[in-house]
Write a structure and sequence with these properties.
Elements lengths: L1 E4 L5 H9 L3 E4 L11 H11 L1 E5 L2 H10 L4 E5 L6 H18 L5 E4 L4 E4 L1
Parallel strand pairs: 1-2, 1-3, 3-4, 4-5
Antiparallel strand pairs: 5-6
Length: 117
C-alpha cells in the first residue's frame, strides 16, 4: 500500500510509514516550494494509486462527489499531538490497510473507525 500524506500532517508520519515498510510521500514534496492544491493531490493519488491521509473534509467531499482521491484515510481526531496521531495510526494501520480491500474511504478518530464503500 502506498500513501500520500496531506500537508497539514507531520513529515514524521511519512518516516513512520517507511519504518513500517510502506511507501509514503508528503504532499509538500510534490510542489516546488508552493502550496499544492487538493486537486493536484487527488490527481497524484489516482495516478500513483496512493491512499491520501488527511484531516481535510474537502477530500471526503471530493470523494463523495467525484470519487477522488483514489482511497482516503480521513482523520477526525481534532487537534491532537503528533505523538498521539502516530500512536493512533500505529495501533490501527494494519486494520485500515485491510479495510481497503473493500472500502475506498476509512474515517478514523480516537474512538471509532467508519468504513465508506
Amino acid at each position: 500500500m502506498k500513501f500520500l500524506v496531506d500537508e497539514q500532517l507531520p513529515w514524521a508520519l511519512v518516516k513512520w510509514l517507511a519504518s513500517q515498510g510502506y511507501d509514503g510521500i508528503h504532499a509538500t514534496s510534490l510542489g516546488k516550494n508552493i502550496r499544492i492544491t487538493d486537486r493536484e493531490i487527488c490527481k497524484e493519488s489516482i495516478q500513483q494509486q496512493r491512499a491520501v491521509i488527511s484531516k481535510d473534509i474537502d477530500f471526503l467531499n471530493s470523494f463523495l462527489i467525484k470519487k477522488e482521491p483514489w482511497k482516503l484515510i480521513y482523520l477526525t481526531t481534532g487537534n491532537i499531538s503528533n505523538r498521539e496521531l502516530l500512536s493512533l495510526l500505529q495501533s490501527n494501520l494494519f486494520q485500515l490497510v485491510g479495510l481497503f480491500d473493500k472500502a475506498n474511504v476509512v474515517e478514523m478518530n480516537q474512538h471509532n473507525i467508519l468504513v465508506r464503500l
